[in-house]
Amino acid sequence: MSPRIARVALLLVLLAPALAGCTLTWGPGPGEAGNWLPLGRTLVLARVDSEENRPTAETAAELLATALEDAGRVVRVREFAGQARALGIEAWARGLVARLQRGGWPTGDEALALQSGFAVGTVLAVEVTGYDQVWGKFGKFTRVGVAAQAWDLRSAQALWRLRGESEVESMRGRAFQYSMEQAVDELAVAIRPKLEVSLVKAWRYWRR
Length: 208
What we know:
Elements: H1 3-20, E1 41-46, H2 54-67, E2 74-76, H3 77-87, H4 90-101, H5 108-118, E3 120-135, E4 140-152, E5 157-169, H6 175-191, H7 199-207
Parallel strand pairs: 1-2, 1-3
Antiparallel strand pairs: 3-4, 4-5
Helix pairs in contact: 1-5, 2-6, 3-4
């Protein structure tokens, strides 16, 4: 462990009670009501493969974080950075987030710091897998795909990867926005399963 990481970890361990408070209390736990989110806080962030797609990826991550708030304690990047700022380690936190957004996962030292100082047990990386328009038989379809990969900080293992997809037919103005919302909702349902019968999807399939 590097001296810098050691100092960060020690500081976080000492201040953990003030940061964590009651944040380890969740709603349904693993296996309860189909909740796939593990116990503990979940840091939600976007995978960003280029600056050009950053706004789209971060929008997807924000929508998913909002959709999952009733399933557990979700931590957004800005909240994480704010807590780190209060500890005087914002540069460390932003550097970590930047690396995770580019496709990495926390190292052992970083995982320890996230658990000890921020009560974060899971990292949920959100990726936009599709974002385009195609022509069908009767009109233009706008397609958006979103995926989420969960990483458990305790075991340093990937837990699962789930996807949500949506397409909107012949909608002007906000087709991409609406399709994104639908894809994220489908992904949220996959993470927190519930009974869902979609007549809208059946209609779209018939119209192809």
